[in-house]
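Q: Convert this sequence to structure tokens.
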Amino acid sequence: MCDILHLEWTATLKTPPRPILACSTCGGPKPFRSSGRIRLNANGKRLDAWLIYRCIACDGTWNRPVFERQSVRAIDPAMLHAMQASTPDFVTRIEFDAQALKAKAGRIEESDDIETRKAVLRHDADWRRIAITLALPHPTGLRLDRLLAAELPLSRSRLQVLFDRQEIRVAPERKDALKRGIRDGTVVTLDLRDEAERMAIGRAAMGG
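A:
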């Protein structure tokens, strides 16, 4: 059926997550920020690598393990060069991996400040449905309903009403899909009965 407006939203966090750690100098839990620098330590034929974080209050350091006791021969040469040079792309991938950071730090602080780039993949003249495919360069814990409410003229309560009516569907399907963190490849389909609401949402979804 030729009745769809299909968009891709690329959602990127503007600020990487920060670990909340007990700072020995400050005497309590403090957020730590990435220094952007990788530290390497060779022990025979094995290598340790850490991303260095600093306390936002006193500049005290914390070494976030990237890997430990890794055989030098098992490390891809391009990856080794990226670590030695602390290349921005390599460091960024580590900084934004919230799940890995939480595994090491236990408690983290995530920002809801997201930049969303919107691209039209298909725009049928007589569209009645809106499909939004999410693309995430980096994982984030931001809830789907928060993202949609920020980008569309819909409150979170209104989103839930439409979801319960099945005028909003999310794939993969889950009963609590709106309340879960957004994931790369998630598809949100809005098949709204109210034409005025549908047109207003379509304009906002395209960035208009």
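The chain has a mean pLDDT of 93.
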